[in-house]
């Protein structure tokens, strides 16, 4: 996360925790928002290949999370394991509705 974003959040009184892996916070997470690692933001494909699966959420990851954790996941998923989640569906449905209203 850019330091300017972290500083702005902290200045607004929003607590910010920086960690190296999802496992550090997964058991205490109420809502998990996941997006893909964007290939187009890397200088080379080799750099992207080294990190593209770093934030992959699959059944193994979900098995270590709270049972009632909400997963917000914008689709389509380019490189990931699909999983069913009612909350993901609700989020996506509302997101599409919201985007179409503006």
Could you explain how this protein is built, in words?
It is a single chain. The protein has helices spanning 3-11, 45-51, 59-62, 86-101; strands spanning 31-33, 70-72. It has 102 residues and is mainly α. Helices cover 35% and strands 6% of the residues. It has a single domain, classed as 3-Layer(aba) Sandwich (Rossmann fold). The radius of gyration is 16 Å and the shape is flat. Residues 80-86 and 96-102 have low confidence and may be disordered. It has 4 helices and 2 strands, in the order αβααβα. It has a two-stranded parallel ribbon with strand order 1-2.
SSE pattern: HEHHEH
The CATH architecture is 3-Layer(aba) Sandwich
Rounded Rg = 16 Å
Helix content: 25-40%
What top-tier CATH class fits best?
Answer: Alpha Beta
Structural class computed from helices and strand pairing: mainly alpha
- The CATH topology is what? Rossmann fold
The major β-sheet equals: 2 strands, parallel
Task: Give the tally of structural domains.
Answer: 1
Total number of beta strands: 2
CATH superfamily grouping: Aspartate/ornithine carbamoyltransferase
The chain-level mean pLDDT equals 76
Question: Beta-sheet strand percentage?
Answer: 5-15%
Q: Please mark out the parts with pLDDT under 50 across 5 or more consecutive residues, or reply none.
A: 80-86, 96-102
Give the strand order of the largest sheet, numbering strands 1, 2, ... along the chain.
1-2
Distance from first to last alpha carbon: 28 Å
Counting H and I runs of at least 4 residues, what is the number of helices?
Answer: 4
Globally, the shape reads: flat
